[in-house]
Amino acid sequence: MSMIRVEDVHKHFGSLHVLKGITFGGAKGEVVVLVGPSGSGKSTLLRCINLLVWPDAGKVLLDGVQVNAPNIRPEWVRQQIGMVFQSFNLFTHLTALENVTLGLTKVRKMSPGEATARGLELLRRVGLAEKMNTYPAQLSGGQQQRVAIARAIAMNPKAVLFDEPTSALDPEYIKEVLDVMAVLARDGMTMIVVTHEMGFAKNVASRVLFMDGGVILEEGTPVEIFEHPREERTRAFMSKILE
Amino acid sequence: MGGIVLIVLLEEILGFSLLDAGFWSRFGPALQRGFAGTLGYSGAIIPVGFAIGFFGGWARISRHRVLSWPVAAFVDLFRGIPPIVLIIFAFLFGPELLPQRGGGLAIGLNFAAFGLALHTAAYQTEIFRAGFQSVPRGQLEAAQAIGLSRWQTMGIVVLPQTFRLSLPALGNEFATVIKDTSLLGALGAIELFSSGQEFSALAPQTGLFGWVFAVWVVVSAVYFFLTFAVTRGLLAVERKYRVPGMEVSGL
Q1: Is the CA virtual torsion A68, A70, A71, A75 positive or negative?
Q2: What is the ipTM of this complex?
Q3: Which residues of A are less than 8 Å from B142 in CB distance?
């Protein structure tokens, strides 16, 4: 059964039809990579999964439960799905450790001692335990994004969504973030990743979806999509980003 | 320091002494009353303006036009009228709003003080609006993504940053309010400025012309001391809660 499943999801922003009936799933432990030109609806699709954006029609299922339902609180859904953003979005006024433990203390109501222990363990996993008392502004982009990943997995989510996690990084920091993501994938985390990092997709992705114009145009293994795309538009896109 | 040198110099030239016991026995009681008045008005106007300004700033960024639009109109109106004109309106016509008309000077002055509070509230609304808007939107999304409710997001993520970002501008505004309370003296309120005024006006009868200058020196010094204390106090708060990456450039 899919950990994450999206069925015929539609989203309009005013007169703009951004998602035109998206259906796909990610099984437990699977890494699904979404690629496609900007404006194709990838980010909106991710936000529909954790209900930061409410779908106009269709179903979003988490572990078999439909979550875009009137009797379900969106906060409850978001606690179970981590999210990593392009621009990190760490809380400026909190230290690295506080960023990671905020959800534990305020949402899970964990005691401060317990939360700190868990937060430290998470920072150690992303290689930043020694930066626990450092504020975001004093960290490099790569370090900030690793803290953000620690924050996203702090509450043992069922899946983690990545929205172009390396696009805002200077080239020298991209590898450290992708490495952390690869380890997370190896440890069995269900991940849905919007990225144009072909190397990461080839090595880590179970499946790649190509989106354009609000629909999934084709779907396959990394090799199928990157090297032998069937659709003309996929081919055109790939040749552009592989240049 | 330079101020003290200047005062000593003027004392020599104009022939008065701030250490003269006769001066203090004559001016002391009026100064005390004036000081208490200025302190009282500032102590009432600043918190009222702060409260209205805070909620005004919050409403100003609301997605609901019903909230943001009237606040925008309020800000434009009260920023566009000189405070002296505003308090005269409040002083003369405020009491008319009461069911029992009239009520004398005290009621009018309370309305005038409230007018000043609205005036600073308009400025503080803008200060808080800027403070709210300086919190990056992505952080609100991140807060929601970890499962915080709207109110938790406001209390844990937005407000601590809004206040930090607003402090320097608030310090300026509070200093302005303290000085603006002198306008109430022009309407007959008992405060520092009117104490000085009263003493000056009586000089032709008392013959104490030499002390008029001294009186205004003292009045200025007290205003200076009050504003200095408030701005320094806020600076201390700012330093205590300083966070790297959130420094606000000096004004």
Answers
A1: positive
A2: 0.92
A3: 83, 85, 89-91, 148, 151
